[in-house]
Amino acid sequence: MKWKFRTYLICVLFVVGFTACGGDSEDEADKQPEKPTTSGGGDVIKLPEVDYALEEEALREVFTLHAEGIGTKDPDEFMPYWLKSESEDVFVAWDFWAGAFEKHLGWKAIKKGWEGIFRLRSGKMSVEFESIAIDKFGKNATLYGKYRWAVSGGFIASMVKKDRDDGWKIEQVDYTNKKFGDQVDELKDPAYVNPPPEDE
Fold first, then answer.
1. How far apart are the first and last CA of the chain?
2. How far apart are CA 19 and CA 121, in angstroms?
3. Residue 11 pLDDT
4. Which of 18, 28, 59, 120 could bond 24 through an S-S bridge, CB–CB 3.0 to 4.6 Å?
5. Distance between CA atoms of 121 and 150, rounded to whole angstroms?
6. pLDDT at residue 166, rounded to an integer
7. 8 Å CB contact between 62 and 167
């Protein structure tokens, strides 16, 4: 009899102890932060809020200051606006030399290319923007416009913002306006375009 009572008591204590220690209570479960989920059950990816008007103003300013710097013929005045990378994704394309197509790949080659072309052409450069497109993250943009210089024409530029503190940098410019094919990586599905497309 004593053996049965002891066994019964041990079992009851074991069950009570297991219940008290095992699992979270409802109150504790309520305190756990829940990850936001989509209707499909996955985590929600919150996009950063982008002030497109502010980004557009910054893009215009950087590209305009770059053009003004070219008028000085001093690389220290215009090269800081370029993404400092030797990647072939960073380039300038033009036909300033007697209409012949040239493409300078990487930051150093771009600098040398400008220094070389200044032996032929110089003067003030101004730009006029026709359209600006920005992606949903506010990190990539495509600019379309016209430039006036010793020679004049259309341009397409790709600009990137790798670091918020560093601001927008020029990654690619085609001063031939696609005369020699698609050179610049244009945004395929921009979140912001100014002016908006006519079909909207």
1. 89
2. 86
3. 57
4. 28
5. 6
6. 80
7. yes
Run of H or E including 115? helix 107-117
Integer Cα distance of 200 and 194 in angstroms: 12
Low-confidence ranges of the chain (pLDDT < 50): 24-38
Q: Cα(144)–Cα(129) distance, rounded to whole angstroms?
A: 6
How far is the C-alpha of 20 from the C-alpha of 78, rounded, in Å? 71
Reading the block at residue 116, the tokens are 């070389």
The answer to whether the CB of 135 falls within 8 A of the CB of 190 is: yes
Tokens of 192: 């912001």
Q: Say if strands 169-174 and 91-97 run parallel, antiparallel, or are unpaired.
A: parallel
pLDDT digits (tens, 9 = 90+) for 32-88: 444 444 455 566 666 669 999 999 999 999 999 999 999 999 999 999 999 999 999
Identify the pLDDT of residue 67: 98
Bridge pairing between strands 126-134 and 91-97: unpaired
Calpha distance 162→87 (Å, rounded)? 14
Per-residue model confidence (pLDDT) at position 46 = 65
| DSSP code at position 37 | B
d(CA 103, CA 95) in angstroms, rounded, equals 9
Of 106, 71, 77, residue with least CA distance to 92: 106
User: Exposed, middle or buried: residue 55 (CB in 10 Å: 0-12, 13-18, 19+)?
Assistant: buried
